[in-house]
Amino acid sequence: MESTFHKWLEELSDELEVIQSDDLNEEANGNLITFNVPNEPNSPLNEQALIDFITGCRDYYQQKMNSTKMVFYSWYDEQSDQLRISAVSQKHAQLPFRCKIKNCQLIDFATGIIDKNSGLFSEQEQLNVWQSDI
After folding, report:
1. Secondary structure (3-state) at 47
2. Tell me: the pLDDT tens digits for 90-128?
C-alpha cells in the first residue's frame, strides 16, 4: 500500500501545477486531482498510510504555489471510490461544495475512507472534508 502512495506522490511532485483564479469553481477544478482508493488484498489500507499520503499531497501543493495563501482540502467520493484533493485561494472564504460539509480531523477522515463512508449518505448528510491552510 505504501508503495502505491509513494509512487503517486512522486507523480504528483512532477506533474502538479497549482492555478489561481478569481472564479472559485475554476480554481477548484483546475487544482483537482483524484486517486482511486487502492484495494490491494495483500496490503490493506490503513489510517497512517492515508494520513501520510494526504499530508504529503498537501506539502506538494504548498511547494508549488506562489505567495498566495490557499486552502488545501480533501474529500472522499463514495460513489466513485475516489480520494479527491484540491486547493483554492483563501480569499474565496469558502470551499466549492453545494452540499453541507463537516470539517474533520485527519484521523477521522482517513477512517471514513477505509470504511467507505463520505458522511454524505449517512445520518449526518454532510460531506466529510479535511482542510489545511497553506
Report:
1. helix
2. 999 999 999 999 999 999 999 999 999 999 998 779 999
pLDDT tens digits for 33-82?
A: 999 998 766 667 899 999 999 999 999 999 998 788 999 999 999 999 99
Partners of 85 in beta bridges: 33, 74
- In order, the DSSP letters of 99-127 are S-EEE--HHHHHHHHHTT--STTSTT--E
**Angle in degrees, CA 130, 133, 60, rounded to 5:** 85
**Distance from chain centroid for Cα 105:** 13
Q: Are 1 and 38 in contact (CB under 8 A)?
A: yes
Residue numbers of the domain that contains 114: 2-133
- Burial pattern 81-98, b for ≥16 Cβ within 10 A else e, equals eebebbbbbeebeebbee
Instruction: Using CA atoms of 17, 18, 20, 23 in order, give the dihedral in degrees to the nearest 10.
Output: 100
Q: Residue 1 has what pLDDT?
A: 55
Q: What number of residues does the chain have?
A: 134
Q: How many structural domains does the chain have?
A: 1
